């Protein structure tokens, strides 16, 4: 198993739990600062629009997150609730989400503008017509979770290796071994590559630019001393679906109030790219902060991050065999929404690898031709 991020780590763990002997390899370690699974927090929510599999996958993933954190006695999921604000005329995405949430059994409430104002006086709902509130959804501790999965994998009998895998030669219809940059080799019956933003470089002929890493900026602002209005007890995780798509966290893990723009940024080199936030990104974040959270209009910037998404062309995941190597599976395309699904994806891919079932056509490589 190459890659110890959200997809790779959970897949390795569920393969192990199904009786496989598994070696997990990662270049810089689980949840490292270059990885798409790095950083403190991620959202887990079921609002996903109509006619898609992700809401049901979220329901399963949330169950597994809670089961495993109890098993490990580690807090990885925090139930803050998630508030999805509708700030544009076309609300077909949100309307289409409601039956999907109901079918998946994810609790939700539709909140009118006046109810929003009453519940959250610290928020300006200018332009927001209504919202979906998921009371049982919340935040995931990203970097900590990646380490927790790796630790559990080792404690349950898996082998972990820190090393960089060389782009493999899959001639002859199968992969004989995986070579590492230090000259060593790992041999196995089956291989799964979950290399995040590097998947296209590892498989340039099969994946190539079907995975496009984009530069994304995240900002953390400081609340006033003693002000608890933006703590999780008073403020849920929020999504603002307007002309642009902003999202953020209340003050979690003492990092400040988090805000980010989901708009896809420019192409980015995850290995050597400079991770300094731009003045333009900061100005945009601060402008939206002032619009939606007036008390934070002049809040000090505590911290900024540059991370990356690993986007597939249609933003759906990739879970499929290599077309020329039957014993190689390719896993990626998290596209900014993959982390929450980690344990559900791990279960699904472990089942595919162990039973050799055909992948869901939505996740197949053939769709990207």
Describe this structure in words.
This protein is an alpha+beta fold and 369 residues long. It is built from 8 helices and 18 strands. The protein is 26% helix and 24% strand. Strands 5-6-4-13-14-15-12-16 form an 8-stranded mixed β-sheet. A hairpin with a 3-residue loop joins strand 13 (237-241) and strand 14. Helix 2 crosses helix 8 (342-355). The longest helix is centred in the N-terminal third of the chain and has 19 residues, at 54-72. The model has no long low-confidence stretch (mean pLDDT 97).
Top keywords for this entry?
alpha+beta, eight-stranded mixed beta sheet, single chain, three-stranded antiparallel beta sheet, D-Amino Acid Oxidase, Chain A, domain 2, globular, 369 residues
The top-level CATH class is Alpha Beta
In helices, the fraction of residues equals: 25-40%
Which secondary-structure class do the elements indicate?
alpha+beta
- As for the number of domains, it is 1
* Overall spatial form: globular
Low-confidence stretches: none
Sheet of most strands: 8 strands, mixed
The fold-level CATH name is: D-Amino Acid Oxidase, Chain A, domain 2
CATH architecture: 2-Layer Sandwich
Q: What oligomerization state is this entry in?
A: single chain
Strand order of the largest sheet: 5-6-4-13-14-15-12-16
- Termini separation (Å)? 26 Å
Q: Into which percentage range does the β-strand content fall?
A: 15-25%
Total DSSP E strands: 18
Gyration radius (Cα, Å) is 21 Å
Order of helices and strands: HEEHEEHEHEEHEEEEHEEEEHEEEH
Please tally the helical runs, counting DSSP H or I stretches of 4 or more residues: 8
């Amino acid at each position: 198993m190459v890659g110890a991020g959200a997809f790779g780590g959970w897949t390795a763990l569920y393969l192990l739990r199904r009786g496989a002997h598994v070696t997990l390899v990662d270049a810089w370690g689980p949840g490292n600062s270059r990885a798409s699974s790095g950083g403190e927090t991620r959202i887990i929510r079921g609002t996903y629009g109509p006619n898609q599999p992700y809401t049901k996958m979220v329901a399963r993933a949330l169950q597994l997150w809670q089961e495993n954190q109890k098993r490990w006695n580690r807090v990885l999921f925090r139930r803050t609730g998630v508030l999805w604000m509708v700030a544009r005329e076309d609300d077909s995405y949100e309307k289409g989400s409601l039956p999907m949430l109901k079918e998946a059994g994810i609790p939700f409430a539709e909140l009118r503008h006046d109810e929003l104002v009453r519940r959250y006086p610290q928020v300006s709902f200018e332009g927001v017509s209504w919202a979906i509130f998921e009371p049982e959804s919340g935040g995931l501790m990203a970097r900590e979770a990646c380490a927790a999965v790796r630790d559990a994998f080792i404690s349950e009998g898996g082998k972990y290796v820190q090393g960089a895998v060389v782009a493999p030669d899959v001639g002859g219809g199968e992969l004989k071994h995986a070579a590492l940059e230090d000259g060593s080799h790992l041999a196995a019956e089956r291989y799964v590559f979950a290399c995040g933003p590097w998947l296209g470089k590892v498989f340039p002929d099969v994946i190539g630019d079907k995975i496009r890493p984009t530069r994304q900026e995240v900002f953390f602002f400081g609340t006033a001393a003693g002000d608890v209005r933006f703590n999780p007890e008073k403020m849920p995780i929020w999504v603002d679906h307007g002309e642009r798509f902003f999202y953020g966290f209340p003050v979690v893990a003492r990092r400040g109030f988090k805000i980010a723009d989901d708009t896809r940024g420019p192409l980015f080199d995850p290995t050597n790219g400079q991770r300094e936030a731009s003045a333009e990104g900061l100005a945009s974040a601060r402008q939206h902060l002032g619009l939606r959270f007036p008390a934070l209009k002049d809040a000090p910037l505590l911290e900024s991050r540059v991370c990356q998404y690993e986007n597939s062309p249609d933003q759906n995941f990739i879970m499929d065999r290599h077309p020329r190597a039957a014993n190689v599976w390719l896993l990626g395309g998290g596209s900014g929404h993959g982390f929450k699904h980690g344990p559900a994806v791990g279960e699904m891919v472990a089942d595919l690898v162990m039973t050799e079932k055909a992948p869901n056509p939505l996740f197949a490589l053939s769709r990207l031709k």
